[in-house]
Amino acid sequence: MVELLAPAGNLAMVEAVVANGANAIYVGPRGWSRRRDRYELPEEDVREAVLMAHVGGAKLRVAINTNMQSHEIPPMLRKMERFVAWGVDGAIMTDIGAIAEVHRRFPHLTIHASIGANILNDEDVRFYRSIGVSQVVADTKLTLKELASRKEQMDVGIEILIHANYCYTYLGKCWMSPYHRLERTTDPSGKDQFKGSPNRGGLDYRVCLESWELYSGITRWEERVALKNDAFFLLEDIPRLIDLGVHCLKIQGREYPVPLVGDMVRFYRDLIDGYLAQPTGQPFDLTPWRATLARIEAGRNVARGEGTRLLLIEARQPVPAA
Amino acid sequence: MARQMNADGSDGIEDRGVDAFELNTSIANLRDLLASDLSAYDAVYLGDIYCRLYEANFLERPEDLREGLRILRDQGKRAYLTTYAAPRNDFLPRVRKMLEVAAGAGAQAVEVHNLGILKIAHEEVPGLPIHVGGFANVYTDAGVDVLRGFGAVRFTPNYELSLDEIREILATSGAAMELLVHGKMPLGISDYCFLLEYEEKWGIKCPDLCQKDLFLKQGDWAMKTVGKGILSGKDVCMLEHLPLLLADGHRHFRIETVSETPAYRREVGAVYREALRRAAEEPFRQEERWWDVVRAHARIGVCNGFYFGKSGMDYAGIRPDAAGSLLTISPSAG
After folding, report:
1. What is the average pLDDT across B156-181?
2. Nearest in space to A117 (alpha carbons), one of A137, A146, A143
3. Is B207 part of a structural domain of the chain?
């Protein structure tokens, strides 16, 4: 049975996605995940989120998927010890050293290789499998053929992003944002913050979406070039992905309004259930689903467009002196 | 100039004092290799990591790779193979082939940016020392430990790390680190080349498109594009900070020139070789002519990358003129 995995950037979102049929939820402990801190949870809320998820029959995963610093690994392990004691069902991680340490310390904890690990080929999967990862998030650029190869050949769970951004660059292999603006601070707990670096847990300024001019030498060749960066919702591929046996369909969007994320989860819950209820071999008509998705997409586009506009303004602000 | 290796495949330069160092660079194809004066360098990485269609990429041409390795060996250089930064399944047969060619033709190491290729190299060409490249996301000492288990002997930390953070890794792991000291810093890699959209309009075809020295600009922001690869607009420049790098124990230094001209490779390399020889002296005497060379080649200016914990395009140092000026804007369309 395919799992529907939903984001939660706060406890209200945990409640909404559970109510709308998520099988599993992921949250980011403040300072340790690939989102800005306002979409992450303080530790006491992670504990509450575990309870809320379990009461609602869902699993709760913690995304500790920053590329952390060497000296942050011991405190991360202490944090993970508390999360495991509270009953989290899995950890989403990126740094290979941190993954290996967590697997060594908590061998029964399910470790998911984050989208930031940028797993692109079957040998990548085998590498991550060898250090303790049992589920991998497929890069958004992979084709169904590539996913099928992975599914057939490997004892590993595949997670597919059904709503996310299709960046110009590969996720986890891009530092355009901090090149232009990086603001390093320390939070009240002593954790270093890297505002501007998504790989290190800060926000992404989305500088790729700037209105770039193209120059050759001193001559402007193009007034406006676009580095492709589209947010997407999968629809047509969902039945095929379910047939392929992917383990998990994942929605991104901790930064969006709670009602919007609730709508996204409800849409995909009903779509998955509708497809699974269809007698085998009969065609599945996606027509009625398209209109609903268009409405959700319009709401998402408004939220995302405004978010991008504000981020690009913020990216131009001077970094305060330390 | 070629040196012997330790049993683990490392070169042990760190143990031989501040006078021993390796200055290396990168070259994508045989044409560029033949046009380059490499007298400033100890070692060269062969291949373009961004694109399989890059003009006559060493990573796609077994005979060219054999010839490139022979040329470097004849010049007394250490010859390394690099590999693709973002390989999909369909790249892997070619990668396996080139690893076999490199090992058979006497390459002295392979650089990997992808952990799948690391696993392949470790298992299938176990005698070939492995250097871990900047796209492999080495952020922690624990990460270095994991990679050592797969045969890695040298590590380029992720470009986002500061010198303090690199120092932390070095202190606990003792690993040989390789640092980019000059040139365009990689900022990202894509599976899509947007330049192809302009083939018809510009009348320039692949693989010539990405060799046109193209920059994306907006206000005071600039990035170099090689199609699938996005690089810093400014050149990372650690010239005045070389004594600090040596004092930290670093001995492997890279001048990134894969998308630069032979003149850039020769002239900047010569500056750094001379500067590195002097960097251990107190005081470190810099020459104005070094900066003339740096300024002449860094048309967008210079930066320090992330080495000082700031935005990558910032420059910290005692040379306020080093940041340079932006390209003069000529709004006429090409």
Report:
1. 97
2. A137
3. no
* CA B72 vs CA B54, B65, B68: distances in Å: 21, 11, 6
The enclosing domain of A48 has a CATH number of 3.20.20.70
Contact yes or no for B189 and A173 at CB 8 A: yes
Per the structure, how many domains does chain A have? 1
- The residues in B 143-162 lying below 8 A from A, measured between CB atoms, are 143-147, 150, 158-160
* Residue B31 structural domain: 13-185+234-323
Cβ contact A70–B140 (<8 Å)? yes
User: Has residue A159 been placed in a domain?
Assistant: yes
* Interchain pair A180, B118: CB under 8 A: no
CATH of the domain at B161: 3.20.20.110
Contact list, B150 vs chain A (CB under 8 Å)? 127
Q: What does DSSP say about strands B252-256 and B229-237: parallel, antiparallel, or unpaired?
A: unpaired
Tell whether omega for the bond before B207 is within 30 degrees of 0, i.e. cis. Answer: yes
* pLDDT for res B326: 43
Helix (H) or strand (E) holding B224: strand B221-225
Q: Yes or no: say if B313 and B300 are a contact pair by the CB < 8 Å rule.
A: no
Residue B281 has pLDDT above 90, yes or no: no
Instruction: Determine, yes or no, domain membership for A223.
Output: no
B334 vs A contacts (CB less than 8 Å): 216, 219-221
Q: Is the peptide bond between B283 and the residue preceding it cis, with omega within 30 degrees of 0?
A: yes
Distance CA A131, CA A98 (A): 10
The answer to whether residues A171 and A116 touch, using CB atoms and an 8 Å cutoff, is yes
Cβ-Cβ contacts under 8 Å, B327 against chain A: 215, 217-218
Q: Does A179 map to a domain?
A: no
Beta strands in chain A (DSSP E): 3-7, 24-27, 59-64, 90-93, 111-113, 135-137, 157-166, 169-174, 183-186, 192-195, 212-216, 219-225, 230-233, 248-251
d(CA A167, CA B275): 40
Residue A110 inside a domain? The answer is yes
Q: Count structural domains, chain B.
A: 1
Q: What is the mean pLDDT of chain A?
A: 92
In angstroms, what separates the C-alpha of B74 from chain A's closest C-alpha?
35
> Which residues in chain A touch residue B115, judged by CB atoms under 8 angstroms apart?
96, 123-124, 127-128
Domain extent at residue A260? 3-170+229-281
B134-149 pLDDT, tens digit per residue, is: 999 999 999 999 999 9
Taking the model in full, what pTM does it have? 0.94
Residue among B51, B53, B120, B61 at smallest CA distance from B86: B51
ipTM of the prediction: 0.94
Residue with tokens 């050949």: A153
Mutation pick from A179, A205, A216, A228 vs chain B, by most beta carbons of B within 10 Å, is: A179
Scan residues 264-323 of B and list those with Cβ closer than 8 Å to A.
306, 309-313
